[in-house]
Specification:
about 300 residues; alpha+beta; Jelly Rolls; 9-stranded antiparallel beta sheet; 13 strands; binds 2-oxoglutaric acid; binds fe (ii) ion; oxidoreductase; metal ion binding
Length: about 300
Amino acid sequence: MATAQITVSHPLATPNGSQPSATESPTISLLEPNATAASVKLDVSAPFSAIRTLFDHLYSHPDDATKLNAIYPRRGILKTAATIKTSSDQKFTIDLSPKRVALIPASLQESLARHGLKDVLDFFNTLTTEYYLQHELPSCDYNPVTAASESLNGCGAHTDYGTFTIIFQDGTPGLELEDANAPGSWVPVPGDATVILTGWCAVILSGGRITAARHRVRRTPGVRRLSAVLFIAPDLDVKLKPLGGIQPTRPFSETVMRGDIDTEVFKEVMGKRWRYREGNEEMEGHEVGTQDDEIAKLIWARGRV
Ligand SMILES: O=C(O)CCC(=O)C(=O)O
Ligand SMILES: [Fe+2]
């Protein structure tokens, strides 16, 4: 495993804008088998006991789950498709984002506070206000009790849409990375690693120099696993194009080069297939391509998929 000591010198990259001392520098270790994922030591950890408490409370108090889902009626906050669908990802999620958190009424925040929500939101606030990392923060519960309790499929193989993703894990293995040089070959990630993965926004911004890390989560039947995932991406109205001065490694589509695709459009294209995999949205009969095919069609020049 290659290990690099990285000094973070940008003031926004450290809490309160302070410059890090040598000992505060995060240690980043590239995870085998490729350079699209790294394990990083951060001085912030996810509150897994609060995350567990919050999931358990919402499972056993459907009224509270209904109230929470009502703040975002379009898609809900607590996703439980795995209780009824056997072919989708066998996991549950609580999907938070700054926009959604702002919509939770004070009374609901207060009543859920002692059932884990306070610590989850504190963690969220630390990430967004001290580390300036924001976008979306789903918590995942690979719970042994699902519609297909013996299934090994926790989260199907996929790539993430953002610039990068940080995955906090509760110590339980299950996350795997695909070997970019040997598609179909999966390498387990240690369960206690905090992982940074590259996503598709990084592919576009880097002019194709960075590739998106394909990953998945395998379950161990009977074993519960929790994770907290932070998707970091440009603001929704940012036009996604190779950054100025970068010579793309392969031609991008006219649509990308004209600046017609902003993060919101891109997220919507990826999100549909994502929700299908998670069991939260049906797919029209003719929509048969994989998520990566769909993105490739959109971003690369024709004939170069
Ligand atoms: O739960 C995990 O460890 C990873 C989940 C994931 O890949 C995702 O939500 O995009
Ligand atoms: Fe992912």
